[in-house]
Specification:
Blueprint: H1 8-24, E1 29-33, E2 36-40, H2 46-65, H3 76-97, H4 104-126, H5 131-160
Antiparallel strand pairs: 1-2
Helix pairs in contact: 1-2, 1-4, 2-3, 3-4
């Protein structure tokens, strides 16, 4: 692992992401009552989603460092940008939703999420991609997912209702017997 081979965007994402992970465990909200201090960190409410996205983002970037990235139909930098956008969104929701007794660590956490997003943007620029590429990739992925869903539902409809032949009417037993040669038997003698 040679850190000098990493792009500046990847270095910013990893550095600020690790700091954001540390800050996520500090007191984002704190109140003191009767000599007791009650506090919460980022991992409550919307912040838990931000924490999970942050962990996924760090795992994604560390996979690139160790050369273990899975192949996806989208560019790795686009995945990083989308994860960073989700991180900013959920961190902002955490800061705005839990706005009582907020501490400086909540603001530092939000700032670090924005820095992660800036690092992702730097990485995207370094790879020669733009937000137009993100839009086209997301649009094509949504279109292919919709086509696959339509195809699956069409196949499911055909399998659910197989074509059957109409039943043939059975001959009626109420019909009179066909006439045939008559046989006469002699009367029985008594």
């Amino acid at each position: 692992m040679d850190i000098s081979k990493l792009s500046n965007g990847t270095k910013v994402v990893l550095g600020s992401g690790i700091l954001a992970l540390v800050v996520s465990f500090l007191h984002w909200q704190s109140v003191e009552r009767s000599g007791l201090t009650f506090s919460r960190n980022e991992w409550h409410g919307w912040g838990s989603l931000a924490g999970i996205v942050l962990l996924v983002l760090l795992a994604w970037e560390l996979a690139a460092v160790f050369g273990v990235r899975p192949s996806l139909p989208v560019s790795p930098t686009i995945v990083t940008v989308l994860l960073a956008a989700l991180l900013i969104l959920f961190t902002l929701l955490k800061v705005l939703a839990d706005n009582e007794f907020r501490t400086i660590w909540a603001w530092i956490g939000l700032l670090l999420a924005v820095v992660v997003g800036a690092g992702a943007w730097l990485g995207m620029q370094g790879a020669g991609e733009s937000f137009a590429d993100v839009k086209s990739t997301v649009s094509s992925a949504a279109a292919s997912a919709a086509a696959a869903a339509r195809s699956a539902s069409d196949t499911g409809d055909k399998q659910a209702a197989p074509a059957t032949e109409a039943p043939q009417p059975e001959p009626s037993t109420d019909a009179a017997p066909e006439p045939g040669p008559e046989r006469t038997e002699p009367p029985a003698s008594a």
